[in-house]
Q: What sequence folds into this?
């Protein structure tokens, strides 16, 4: 037994060393930086130890703006994208002809580069000197005034960001949900039909519970993914996100490290730790709630 | 409620709608009111398709289905009044046993919908019938296969259907449970008096509990009748081969001057039989070991099975090399040395070409 244990640890060693070196150590390092005031990479010096970094970050209007943006993004896109994906997968699994074609079409955004998609969205939404953009053109058909989605009011920019995020995350969710729906044994539906179960009741009492583990998985990964949003905002609004008022927490961390106003690893670390705590809390809450709901 | 199907036919089309498979072909069959009928056949013979059509899950291509005098062919399953037990039971895994049994009742609408208390009472009643009252708050995965089967039956019966349909009810159970469960099905049917049709590929299962059996092959009804009658009087070689364990022995023979010849030797007088080559089917219990018997086989081994003895012999006319005879004792078996007389009522002659039965007169010995 003892022999076996030693062997097992030996086998695990390479993975443990790599994980420790590249994951655990940096994490601890970040935690330490976040308590060291005015840490300087070049000289490896700092002024003191304390909660000053956190105080600064939490009072920084840019961080608060990023926090608000991120939360709104999470709260809007996760339910919308999951619900939409569920609707589309239900549709996909109930049609027979051309199903393969539709599945391919819905999956295309997944294999498309984020920045390329961002460019397309700029074409769709951006107002320039020459054109109001495709969406504004369509809005004008219905009597809507031109709205500057990229440089205009906050709600318009947030709308574009949410729209974009939903569009990008949708394919993966559709993929997961269609396969989850396909894996439900058809006999359950036959039994439900023999018992005269209405379509709504079949969906809420049979389909939904059967695929609930997958929905929980999508919601949790969706939350985590949305909290870590950054490249999407860059693709739409350029690199100076603070100026655009569309920064996210990850964007704030990046800006603190490397941005035009950057060079503050301590603040960046504190913000990163705050993000970590938020995601951890929400994931734990998610798991607790879902464990009560799903008899997986 | 009597179930009657008339000229029931089901074609399946492939994607291009060109190639069709006929799963059930011109099936006419009656399940008398209050009886338990076994629909029997090898896999792919259309028996499950027939069940699905009676249930309403599958639409027949042609033909009508009647429950009593009512034509239910065009009715959806929920208004036909059928209870269906699926092969894998299809119990909802996230619901408790009680919720599973209540599920069909909760689907009812309007005037048909019983009150909460009435629902609970009926669920309890159905559970009592299949003896699972103590398991009501468990989930299906916490139950054994046999208990799941009972829950499925309770769920099928709780709506008080006019007919009960079971698809391969015993195939997911181990041998011991199978024996127990088939008695259980028999008892439930007797107590409720509900007209029951079940599908199986296991002839022993069908013979043992059914009042009547219907044997199907490739979508066609081969024979229908009481189990013993079908066993004793098979209409064709397929039915004769399909029923009985150990299976019937098939030998190629010839009828000449009202005598059955096997490998050129006269073995049995078959008065009234037409001349020509035939398949001779001999039930294992149709062999009588006699040292001076007319059928001379080479005895390869004797298998003792406790209650009786099985003799495995070879004969040149035998279709698959060896034949099997069931005899009462080892002493008799060994004394005979592989020579037998035949019981005329256990010997059937079949046409070589279309494999239909060729009758001959038997005088009871």
A:
């Amino acid at each position: 037994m003892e022999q076996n244990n030693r062997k097992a640890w030996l086998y695990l060693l390479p993975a443990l060393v790599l994980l420790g070196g590249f994951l655990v150590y940096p994490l601890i390092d970040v935690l330490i930086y976040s308590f060291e005031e005015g840490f300087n990479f070049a000289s490896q010096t700092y002024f003191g130890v304390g909660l000053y970094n956190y105080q600064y970050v939490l009072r920084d209007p840019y961080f608060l703006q990023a926090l608000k943006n991120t939360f709104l993004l999470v709260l809007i896109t996760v339910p919308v994208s999951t619900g939409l994906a569920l609707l589309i997968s239900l549709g996909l699994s109930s049609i027979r002809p051309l199903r393969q074609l539709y599945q391919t079409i819905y999956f295309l955004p997944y294999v498309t580069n984020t920045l390329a998609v961002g460019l397309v969205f700029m074409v769709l939404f951006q107002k320039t000197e020459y054109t109001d953009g495709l969406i504004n053109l369509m809005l004008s058909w219905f009597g809507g005034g031109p709205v500057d989605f990229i440089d205009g009011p906050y709600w318009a920019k947030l709308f574009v960001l949410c729209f974009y995020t939903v569009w990008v995350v949708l394919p993966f969710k559709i993929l997961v949900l269609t396969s989850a729906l396909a894996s439900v044994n058809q006999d359950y539906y036959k039994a439900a039909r023999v018992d005269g179960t209405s379509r709504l009741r079949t969906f809420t009492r049979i389909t939904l519970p059967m695929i609930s583990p997958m929905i929980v998985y999508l919601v949790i990964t969706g939350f985590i993914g949305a909290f870590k949003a950054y490249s999407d905002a860059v693709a739409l609004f350029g690199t100076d996100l603070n100026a655009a008022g569309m920064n996210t927490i990850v964007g704030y961390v990046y800006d603190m490290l490397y941005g035009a106003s950057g060079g503050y690893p301590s603040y960046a670390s504190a913000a990163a730790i705050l993000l970590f705590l938020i995601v951890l809390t929400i994931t734990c809450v998610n798991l607790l709630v879902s464990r009560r709901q799903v008899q997986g | 409620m009597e179930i009657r199907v008339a000229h029931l036919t089901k074609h399946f089309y492939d994607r291009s709608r060109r190639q069709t498979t006929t799963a059930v072909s011109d099936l006419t069959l009656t399940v008398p009111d209050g009886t338990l009928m076994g629909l029997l056949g090898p896999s792919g013979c259309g028996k499950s398709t027939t069940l699905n059509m009676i249930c309403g899950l599958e639409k027949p291509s042609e033909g009508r289905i009647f429950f009593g005098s009512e034509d239910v062919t065009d009715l959806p399953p929920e208004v036909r009044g059928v209870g269906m037990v699926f092969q894998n039971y299809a119990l909802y895994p996230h619901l408790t046993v009680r919720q599973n049994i209540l599920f069909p009742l909760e689907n009812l609408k309007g005037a048909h919908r019983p009150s909460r208390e009435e629902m609970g009472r009926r669920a309890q009643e159905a559970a009592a019938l299949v003896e699972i009252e103590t398991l009501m708050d468990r989930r299906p995965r916490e139950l054994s296969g046999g208990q799941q089967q009972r829950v499925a039956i309770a769920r099928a019966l709780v709506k008080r259907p006019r007919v009960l349909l079971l698809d391969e009810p015993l195939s997911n159970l181990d041998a011991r449970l199978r024996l127990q469960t088939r008695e259980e099905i028999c008892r439930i049917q007797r107590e409720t008096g509900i007209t029951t049709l079940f599908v199986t590929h296991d002839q022993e299962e069908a013979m043992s509990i059914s009042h009547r059996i219907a044997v199907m092959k490739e979508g066609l009804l081969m024979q229908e009748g009481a189990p013993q009658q079908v066993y004793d009087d098979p209409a064709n070689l397929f039915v004769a081969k399909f029923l009985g364990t150990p299976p019937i022995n098939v030998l190629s023979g010839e009828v000449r001057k009202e005598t059955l010849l096997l490998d050129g030797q006269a073995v049995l007088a078959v008065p009234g039989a037409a001349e020509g080559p035939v398949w001779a089917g001999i039930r294992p219990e149709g062999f009588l070991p006699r040292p001076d018997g007319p059928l001379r086989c080479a005895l390869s081994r004797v298998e003792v099975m406790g209650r009786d003895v099985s003799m495995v012999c070879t004969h040149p006319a035998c279709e698959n090399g060896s034949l099997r005879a069931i005899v009462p004792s080892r002493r008799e078996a060994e004394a005979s040395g592989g020579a037998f007389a035949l019981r005329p009522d256990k010997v059937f002659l079949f046409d070589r070409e279309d494999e239909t039965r060729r009758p001959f007169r038997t005088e009871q010995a």
